[in-house]
Amino acid sequence: MAGSDGRAEGRADGRADGRADAWAGELAGDRALLGRTSTAERVADILRTRIAEGFFPPGARLSEESIGGALGVSRNTLREAFRLLTHERLLVHELNRGVFVRVLAVEDVEDIHRTRRLVECAVVRGLGRPPYALDGPAAAVAEGERAARAGDWTGVATANIRFHRELVALAGSARTDELMRGVLAELRLAFHVVADPRALHEPYLVRNREILDALGDGERTAAERLLARYLDDSRDRLVEVYARSVDAAGAGTEPGGA
Description:
- The protein is mostly helical.
- It has helices at about 1-25, 40-55, 65-70, 75-85, 105-125, 135-150, 155-170, 175-190, 195-200, 205-215, 220-250; strands spanning about 60, 90-95, 100.
- The chain has a 3-stranded antiparallel beta sheet.
- Mean pLDDT is about 85; it is low at about 250-258.
């Protein structure tokens, strides 16, 4: 039994080393983003984006050696970036094991939507008199529709996240923008373990357009009502499919990523 466990651990370590090498090669291209003033915040920005894209999937172990070497940053800088992302609930540190991309619980998904409803609906409610500056939300809606026509459902998810981020940006509050950046990055962790991204994201394309049109018509109250229903339905649907995907993964079935 001990020998079998050792072989299994060796295979797991080998797979992890292979992933680390692949990530290092890909991340090396991000080094230019650091510029001459490499900081933990900039490293965290790069890693946050990569996590949101699913490059580092939930449950993945992040190698200090591979990532630090790829980005050309010190171990201390990288550890500070890890600390920042742990504070944002995107990473977890496990004693004697390392740093991992967080795997959400179903309760986390519910709480994320509760926070979104509080913030997003409050932003729309407080917009004041029209007309509203809707270039950002409109561009996100158009981006999602283009991605859907191309069959790019990961792109649809990205555009959908952008739409909600642009909605919140209408408040003109850097603090609210920062809050929602973390909340929406966490939401992407749930997307990456959902088996059928098209079924999850496609229904909301039309609803994004409806909210945008209501705001364009100056109908703030109608837009808030549409948004509240949207977020309630999104919560119920994502909780359902996420729980099913997590159960399947626990049973040994590898769920598809969004």
